[in-house]
């Protein structure tokens, strides 16, 4: 039985670990409410939260109501559905490090013969104890699937320890590793753009594309994640998961079908084809003092409260060693306290082989496709056109955008956050948008090699002023290839 059909049993119970945390308040509870409001989850689905906080069922419902009041979009408030959603909720206090508490959790959970979906968002140090507790209490088995929120380790070895612990209780088909970027509508549209339009795929290779840029930039600093971020850094926090998933979706071969096995098989082929990165193909940075959106901000070390060489910025020139992408560089860039918040994929096509307008003064720019994921969502193709006129003094060519604004094109369609789709797929048992173990291992293998190069060559962070686009070395990384970052 394939992984796409083995888990298609819809669960009647959902168990949320970390149910009082920031992720639950901001994302999970609003997402579940949206699914409830739109009738996308079964009426008999019961949602139980668990955490260390000492709360009754009514106390947790009050916490959930407060979170929904703060984080629900305005158009979802005041529709009379709040109480019926809160009635789905219950709560059981649990110290996940103690196996004994899981028996009480199982008793309160009750009958799980209708299927149980577990969303596990906890510290990596608690993964093994949590899985052992679930197994001891009978909350594993064929009718249970588990969704794992990152971080899943901080290198290949520690990731393997966690995945081995999970595998002792859950099969790979029952394991749903979450990368919330894969739930974004624009990311899913990337496949539609490539594989539903004849005009792009024939050019989507080294014959038609000069280079690819992937940028995930943030204007914020640590945002209360001091200890986690200082132990992790930009490479492991963003590149190892989100950016490599975007790269894989951009570069993969056409899958045979739109199913989990076909799509994930093609992604892992790309990840295994990544060439080891040379020392001169990577840049580490750390933000210093500066100004973001006109406001003065501290340096990373001031925000942290201690000295540190953890990177808040990474730029990498990556290569995929296969027939489709031979000779095409993929420039990756991510960082905190940068000039603006942006997530995008830029496909820079090659120039036409001959400019027939040159003798008349016409200058050409190569076509560029920009796929913006956030904060706006759009697909923009830059094309060359002729300016209107009689052309007595020559032909003037100008670059103009062909825009598909997803916000405008689907203005009547309610915008959904990534966790709505991911939670629904977890409940329904659809693994397509979740990450398979061999993908995770391929990602860590590549990233660990980069960190080993840093350590072996004592590559230190280069300071950049907050509010800029990173260290000057990141600009040089592309400029020496005759390429400029899309800004």
- CATH topology of the largest domain, anyone? Dihydrodipicolinate Reductase, domain 2
The mean pLDDT is: 91
The overall number of domains is 2
**Poorly predicted segments:** none
Shape: globular
Secondary-structure content class: alpha/beta
* Major sheet characteristics: 10 strands, mixed
User: Could you state the CATH homologous superfamily of the largest domain?
Assistant: Dihydrodipicolinate Reductase, domain 2
CATH class value of the largest domain: Alpha Beta
Amino- and carboxy-terminal Cα gap: 47 Å
Can you describe this structure?
The chain is α/β, with parallel strands linked by helices. It has two domains: 13-178, Rossmann fold (3-Layer(aba) Sandwich), CATH 3.40.50; 182-479, Dihydrodipicolinate Reductase, domain 2. It is 34% helix and 21% strand. It is built from 14 helices and 16 strands. The protein has helices spanning 22-37, 57-71, 82-86, 101-109, 127-136, 156-167, 185-195, 226-251, 260-272, 300-304, 406-409, 418-428, 437-456, 472-479, and strands at residues 13-17, 46-51, 89-93, 116-120, 144-149, 175-178, 209-217, 282-292, 295-297, 313-318, 330-335, 342-349, 368-374, 378-386, 397-405, 462-466. Strands 7, 8, 9, 10, 11, 12, 13, 14, 15 and 16 form a ten-stranded mixed sheet that branches. Strands 3-2-1-4-5-6 form a six-stranded parallel sheet, with helices on both faces. Strand 8 and strand 9 (295-297) form a beta hairpin. Helix 8 packs across helix 9 (260-272), helix 8 crosses helix 13 and helix 9 (260-272) packs parallel to helix 13. The two termini are 47 Å apart. The mean pLDDT is 91.
């Amino acid at each position: 039985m394939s992984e796409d059909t083995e888990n298609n049993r819809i669960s009647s119970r959902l168990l949320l670990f970390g149910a009082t945390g920031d992720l639950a308040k901001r994302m999970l509870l609003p997402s579940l409410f949206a699914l409830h409001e739109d009738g996308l989850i079964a009426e008999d689905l019961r949602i139980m939260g668990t955490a260390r906080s000492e709360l009754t069922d009514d106390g947790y419902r009050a916490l959930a109501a407060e979170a929904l009041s703060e984080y629900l979009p305005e158009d979802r408030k005041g529709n009379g559905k709040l109480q019926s959603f809160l009635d789905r909720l219950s709560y059981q206090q649990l110290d996940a490090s103690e196996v004994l508490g899981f028996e009480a959790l199982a008793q309160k959970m009750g009958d799980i013969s209708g299927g149980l979906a577990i969303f596990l968002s906890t510290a990596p140090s608690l993964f093994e104890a949590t899985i052992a507790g679930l197994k001891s209490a009978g909350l594993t088995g064929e009718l249970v699937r588990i969704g794992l929120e990152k971080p899943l380790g901080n290198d290949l070895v520690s990731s393997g320890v966690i995945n081995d612990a999970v595998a002792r209780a859950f099969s790979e088909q029952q394991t749903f590793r979450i990368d919330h970027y894969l739930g974004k509508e624009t990311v899913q549209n990337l496949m539609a753009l490539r594989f539903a339009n004849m005009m792009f795929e024939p050019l989507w290779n080294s014959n038609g594309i000069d280079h690819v840029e992937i940028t995930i930039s943030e204007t914020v600093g640590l945002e209360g994640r001091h200890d986690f971020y200082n132990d992790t850094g930009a490479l492991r926090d963003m590149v190892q998961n989100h950016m490599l998933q975007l790269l894989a979706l951009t570069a993969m071969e056409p899958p045979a079908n739109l199913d989990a096995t076909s799509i994930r098989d093609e992604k892992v082929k790309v990840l295994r084809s990544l060439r080891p990165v040379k020392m001169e193909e990577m840049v580490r940075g750390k933000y210093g003092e500066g100004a973001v959106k006109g406001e003065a901000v501290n340096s990373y070390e001031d925000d942290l409260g201690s000295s540190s060489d953890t990177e808040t910025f990474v730029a990498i020139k990556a290569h995929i060693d296969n027939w489709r992408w031979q000779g095409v560089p993929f420039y990756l860039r991510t960082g905190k306290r940068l000039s603006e918040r942006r997530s995008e994929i830029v496909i820079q096509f090659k120039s036409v082989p001959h400019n027939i307008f040159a003798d008349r003064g016409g200058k050409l720019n190569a076509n560029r496709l920009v796929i913006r994921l956030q904060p706006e969502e759009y697909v923009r193709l830059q094309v060359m056109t002729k300016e209107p006129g009689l052309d007595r003094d020559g032909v003037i060519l100008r670059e103009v955008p062909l825009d598909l604004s997803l916000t405008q094109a689907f203005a009547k369609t309610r915008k959904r956050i990534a966790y709505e789709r991911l939670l629904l797929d977890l409940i329904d048992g659809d693994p397509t948008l979740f990450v398979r173990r061999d993908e995770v291992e391929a990602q860590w293998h590549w990233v660990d090699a980069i960190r080993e190069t840093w350590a072996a060559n004592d590559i230190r962070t280069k300071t950049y002023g907050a509010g800029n686009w990173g260290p000057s070395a990141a600009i040089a990384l592309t400029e020496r290839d005759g390429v400029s970052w899309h800004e």
